[in-house]
Design goal:
Blueprint (H helix, E strand, L loop, with lengths): L5 E6 L3 H13 L7 E3 L8 E5 L5 H7 L6 E4 L9 E3 L5 H16 L37 E5 L3 H13 L3 E5 L2 H10 L4 E4 L11 H10 L11 E6 L4 H10 L3 E4 L4 H10 L45 E3 L9
Parallel strand pairs: 1-2, 1-3, 3-4, 4-5, 6-7, 6-8, 8-9, 9-10
Antiparallel strand pairs: 10-11
């Protein structure tokens, strides 16, 4: 089902800021999700409000739309969808909206955020959101580190991966990510490209650092690095390739796309239909181990192909000899 165009209302803002946000809304019509500006709060899917504009918060609260509102300013009320400070960064504002749209589109609405002077910690997943496992399947799934400066985006990705059997931890910038990576080994790292002004490295630089970092003998290979971004241009994909990423996914990520990518990277077991098949050995079959003998089907099932909105790097060829 195609994602519908999201209607956005702007409340407050001076002429310059409003013009910048309006231009971004206008140019977003060619991307997914797409946005269009509306003038009525009743018809808006989301609101971008000036938290420093007199009456803007009152207008939002009077319409009971706080949970649909991204506030821009020095302070935001409890229950805000998201909050960012000035100067306005349209990319940051729309990253928050993109993540919120993904949560709604895939029917995983998040609880309201508690706004304070710093990034709010992620709330633990509710009991009914945890993946169902048997008693024998105790904490054996791959461990993934998720890195994004948007709490909404982190929560959405965390739920997707947890539902597929992965254990997850989160970080909001490169410094926090490196601290966690120094403490334990992760099987995979999912990182956004733009990690905000508080991050020492962006996603490309962090990926390159992880892939080239020298490790003491016996600590194993670097984790698989998956870049997750709303920017899926050919230029960014090439930059990801040069940085050493193992895959590139564009937001919002569909569940079947994520599952196929995890199978390709070996983080989730392949489906039965994807496994190589071999017929039962017949009486006329040749010696054991001779797959070309009668009674064996040595054809292989087709490899899992990467979805259209993902890219997987080919394996590095082994050194000759």
């Amino acid at each position: 089902m195609p994602m519908p165009v999201q209607r956005v209302l702007l409340i407050g803002f001076g002429d310059f800021e409003r013009q910048a946000l309006t231009s971004y809304l206008r140019f977003s019509g060619t991307r997914v999700p797409a946005y269009e500006q509306v003038d009525d709060i009743g018809s808006a899917d989301f609101v971008i409000a000036d938290a420093d504009h007199p009456g803007a918060i009152d207008e939002v609260m009077a319409a009971d739309r706080g949970a649909d509102t991204v506030y821009i300013g020095s302070l935001a009320p409890e229950g805000a969808l998201a909050w960012t400070m000035r100067p306005i960064d349209p990319l940051q504002v729309f990253r928050e909206l993109d993540a919120a749209v993904a949560l709604r589109f895939f029917k995983s609405a998040p609880p309201p955020l508690h706004v304070n002077s710093g990034p709010a910690p992620l709330a633990p997943l509710a009991a009914d959101e945890q993946p169902q496992r048997r008693a024998s399947d105790v904490a054996t799934g791959p461990l993934a580190l998720l890195i994004d400066d948007s709490e909404i985006a982190l929560r959405f990705l965390q739920r997707q991966l947890s539902a597929l059997g992965l254990r997850t931890e989160t970080a909001i910038n490169s410094q926090s990510a490196l601290a966690l990576l120094a403490q334990q080994r992760f099987d995979a790292v999912f990182v956004d490209i733009d990690l905000g002004p508080d991050s020492a490295m962006d996603g490309f630089a962090l990926c390159q650092h992880l892939k080239r970092q020298q490790r003491p003998h016996g600590t194993g290979l670097p984790p698989r690095v998956v870049i997750v971004s709303a920017h899926g241009s050919a230029t960014n994909r090439v930059r990801g390739t040069f940085a050493g990423c193992d895959a590139y996914l564009t937001k919002p990520i569909k569940e079947e796309t994520m599952l196929g990518q995890l199978r390709t990277l070996g983080l989730v077991a392949p489906a039965e239909a994807d496994k190589p098949r071999r017929k039962r050995k017949s009486a006329a079959a040749g010696p054991a181990g001779n797959t070309s003998a009668p009674g064996f089907d040595d054809s292989k099932a087709p490899l899992v192909q990467p979805p259209e909105d993902s890219a997987v790097l080919p394996p590095t060829p082994a050194n000759p000899g």
